Amino acid sequence: MFTPGELLGVGLTLAAVAAIAVFVSSTRMPLALKRIIYLGLAMRVFGAVARYTVLFGYYGGVGDAVGYYYRGLAYAQRFTRFDFSPFYDSALWFRGNWRGTSFMSFPSGIVLSLIGPSMLGEFIAFSLLAFLGLVGFVVAFKRASPYASAVSYARWVWLFPSLWFWPSSVGKDALILMGLGLLVWGWFGPQGRKNWFLLFAGGFFVTAIRPQVAAVFFLSIVLAQWLSLFGRWTMKRVVQGGLIAGLGTAGIVVAMSLSGIDALSPDSVQGYLEEEAAGAVSDGSSTGRVSIGVTGVPIAILNIIARPFPWEATNVMALASAMEILLFWSLVWYRRKNVVMALRSWRTHPLLRIAIPFSLIYAASLGMVVFNLGIIARQRIFLFPFLFLLLEAVPARGHLQ
Quick one: CA dihedral 263, 269, 274, 277, positive or negative? Predict the structure, then answer.
């Protein structure tokens, strides 16, 4: 049974959902997009309830979200007394560190100080934060692909099962997805300008939680910028490219140093991957070890974007994951004309120039260090907003939209 405090927290987050829906209804955006937003908001609530039910009904209340909730609750009790010492007193930090897993206590505490002690309410709140990131992807899509259908792209990223289920709890997945969305949103600001507030906010969250993901994104930005210069070398573009490359490289250095990589060299990166692979969870269903290096890249990518196969499913969750990835590849086949057009012209499309490198590098690196099929299902959610760009960013002429 829920306590009055827990019910109050749920009520406050549902009121926030309703307020967002009312705001959307008052805007001039197309009716079709409004309807998808309404459905997307509903799926965020449904996803939070589903994650909560699975956590306590299937896993017996054992999960990272529970720890994040209770550590956040301890911080919230201080914040409501205007005691903000957790932000600067390292003695109050989990494991004496503020990054990674420890960082989750801060956003958890802030949310709980606003809604009160309600775990389900916090699940809904974090689900909305993840949705904010996905909104960022749609805004960036619309700005980078003005002649494509934003509604078509939005229906995939806002309604695809993994993107409303996995990031709908108190966890890293929600904040990383939010951070990536803010990064893309900031990169494609209004009138082609960069929104530095969104860029720094998104970069901060991703780097604080999982710096290796931030490093992949920053590397993708650098590659995208220099790919855009082919055939159009002007002094202005070269200077701009140099500045962005410098900022991106600085971001990569910071992110990699936080990950424990001391030097930007193949040997350092390989050593890091080998260390991560050695400590990877391999209990339960496993893909098997993948060799670290160029020869392991194809299998690593295949494991991330195609497994588990249906015959590998050993439980309900694994079967759902297998059916979902099968659904994704069915959508790829259905939109194959668009995919072919996107692959042919990706170097001339500003968002695809980021999406293709990010997808390949992230999938390859993740596939070399993660072998548990359950963890793969969760951590590949960051790929889907980029992969769905292949389906919609460059519509094939005459293809049904």
Answer: positive
| 340: amino acid identity, one letter | V
DSSP state of 347: G
* Selection from 65, 74, 115, 69 nearest residue 93 by Cα: 74
| Backbone dihedral angles phi then psi of residue 140, each to the nearest 5 degrees | -65, -40
131 vs 158: CA distance, rounded Å = 7
Model pLDDT for residues 163-195, shown as the tens digit of each residue: 999 999 999 999 999 999 999 999 999 888 899
Of 120-129, 249-258, 294-303, least confident by mean pLDDT is 249-258
- The tokens for 186 are 């900031």
User: Distance (Å, rounded) from C-alpha 310 to C-alpha 323?
Assistant: 7
Let me know: does 39 contact 159? Beta carbons within 8 Å: yes
Is the bond leading into 310 cis (omega within 30 degrees of zero)? no
Closest CA to 157 of 135, 186, 172, 139: 135
65 residue type, one letter? A
Q: Give whole-number Cα distances, 50 to 45, 53, 57, 120, 129, in Å.
A: 9, 5, 10, 10, 17
**Nearest-angstrom CA–CA distance, 154 and 72:** 32
Between vectors from CA 397 to CA 394 and to CA 400, what angle results, nearest 5°? 90
Longest dimension (CA), the chain: 66
What's the rounded mean pLDDT across residues 6-32? 95
Q: How far is CA 171 from the centre of its chain?
A: 12
CA dihedral 179, 181, 182, 186 (to 10 degrees): 140
Cα–Cα distance measured from residue 212 to residue 215, given in angstroms and rounded to the nearest whole number: 5
* Cis peptide bond N-terminal to 308, omega within 30: yes
Question: Three-state DSSP class for 390?
Answer: helix
Q: Name the burial class of residue 147, with classes exposed (0-12), middle (13-18) and buried (19+) by CB atoms within 10 angstroms of its CB.
A: exposed
Which residues does residue 372 pair with via DSSP β-bridges, in sequence order?
A: 286
Measure the CA–CA gap between 386 and 157, rounded to whole angstroms.
9
Where is 342: in which H helix or E strand? helix 336-345
